[in-house]
Amino acid sequence: MDLKHIRNFSIIAHIDHGKSTLADRMLEITHTVEARKMRDQVLDSMELERERGITIKMQPVRMEYTTHLTPNPSPGRRGGSFSPQEKAGDEVYILNLIDTPGHVDFSYEVSRALKAVEGSILLVDSTQGVQAQTLTTLAMARLPRSGNGRGEGASVIIPVLSKIDSPLARVSEVKEEVVKLLNCDPNEVLLVSGRTGEGVENLLKEVIKRVPAPIENYKNENKSENVLSALVFDFKYSNHKGVIVFVRLFDGKVRRGDSLLFAVSGEKFTALEVGTFSPEETPRDSLSAGDTGYIVTGIKKPGIASVGDTITKSANPLPALPGYMQPMPVVWASVFPEDADDFALLKLSLGKLKLSDSSFSFEEESSGSLGRGFRCGFLGMLHLEIITERLKREFNLNLVITTPSIVYEVEYNTNVGNRLIGDLPKRQKIYSPYFFPDDSNIKTIFEPWVNAKIITPVEYLGNIMQILFDHEAEVGETENFGDNRSSISVKMPLRELMRNFFDELKSTSSGYGSISYNIAENREADVTRLDVLVADEPVPAFSKVVSKKRVEIEAEESVVKLESLLPRQMFTLKIQGKAFGRIISSRTLSGMKKDVTAHMYGGDITRKMKLREKQKKGKKKMKERGKVNIPQDVFLKMMRSGEN
């Protein structure tokens, strides 16, 4: 198809602003999905996405839309307006949509999608208004698009208000917020309802008008048949087909059987199949410049395909397109198999998950008490939960997951009490709380801080200031934002942001507050390691690094929570919190009791006394030698704040 009849666009928004519902209506109007196969959240294919009602993975889909358009040479519209010479009539357009996640943990997914499109629908909930994550995604969309190698400007932004059918909709006020944010004409803001479908067809027509058609770099060259430049924006793994790469073609054409090359890794392969998403994978004869689709590589070796690589013809390789920055993990946690024999399966499972989610990282580590496992880096707490839950569901693994932590940089003392510490490095990064050194060996600790922006209704400001104080935040400027709302600039330790701050903000603001953040500089930290002991043995998975000001509170909370979660054992045991070399908090979990004399009746009392004495000795021996079995769900619940 001619490039002028292709549009590539994405939907970006804050979480729960109606992206998936809007995409459903688009699929209905374009008849991409048959009515009998239609369901809510069609593009959310993962069970977890449908269960939680959120988008976790971006999902591309190709739609064909036939429209009757009249020439519209409106000034000020980029690339997508119609010239007076174009004739009105029925025209078929290919609309390549990429639905993106809205949660701040999955911003990397959004950034990848934006490089594969020329325009974006900025969706704002008319009942909630502009949220903090809306600002973050908008900032990414405004970055120059260098993915096509031409260094062109930012994506075209189409502002859209959703949920206009809701009785709580504040259309005029929220429209004013969007106009102020984008500095655009109020008439450019479109109104839609994903539930009823109102305004969605008009939105599709506006996408055709406003979003520019793709441009091919090598269009005028004679060797265009032997040219290919395709950006890999995602990929997945199939046991039968190997790695399947999701690509946006910027130049040339690819057919089944073509000999191709990964420009960065240098690996050659043959295209076993090419196709598009409808939304399931649909094989086609070829893909051309401007298309979004997939290529089956047949490669089953790990580490070959990577997000941001360029696929080109092996006979005529083109330079690699500018790719993506590597995501920086924010939260770290160690994952160990409950059964040591499952280590190989865990390694294989993590490798497969890495092929469908390139934003998390893992490397092997070992612990004296937990055995061999992996230290994993995640983009946030929700990302951590999703990955661990997928390991459990998709690969049927029982796991031990350590308490999440951030990266600390520790500067050691060169000597302690006239004793030279020769085996310690001068400065070291600590990823796991269990390996955090004793206070006596530490000279200085550095931790990452974040720059955050909070948007909230004015009436909740007082309560939010209190939780900011509790989380050691530095409050910057506060400004009015739209109708009766304020925007607060904040700096705070990443450690405190991950300490249940998101949930506390939502609770304090009755669900109306929102936050986005980015990593800033490192600062000195006043923290220490807190260990949790069960039956006098430290459990590495429960160790964490906490503020010295809160160590007693954290110790008490951890011990009480574990006491409520841990099943009773055959013997009485203690659960203790330890820091600064001493026990700070303690609870006793009584053992199970059995009446060993229940079967006896009558007779001499000394018979019962002998049995009870024997039981007492057995309990004492069990306490000395017995091992406490901690179920998998206890580790998961200890990881999640506020869950019992």
TrEMBL record:
It catalyses: GTP + H2O = GDP + phosphate + H(+). Its EC number is 3.6.5.n1. GO terms for cellular component: plasma membrane. GTP binds at residues 16-21, 162-165. It is a peripheral membrane protein. One of its GO terms (biological process) is positive regulation of translation. It is an enzyme of class 3 (hydrolase). Required for accurate and efficient protein synthesis under certain stress conditions. May act as a fidelity factor of the translation reaction, by catalyzing a one-codon backward translocation of tRNAs on improperly translocated ribosomes. Back-translocation proceeds from a post-translocation (POST) complex to a pre-translocation (PRE) complex, thus giving elongation factor G a second chance to translocate the tRNAs correctly. Binds to ribosomes in a GTP-dependent manner. NCBIfam families: lepA, small_GTP. This is Elongation factor 4. The gene is lepA.
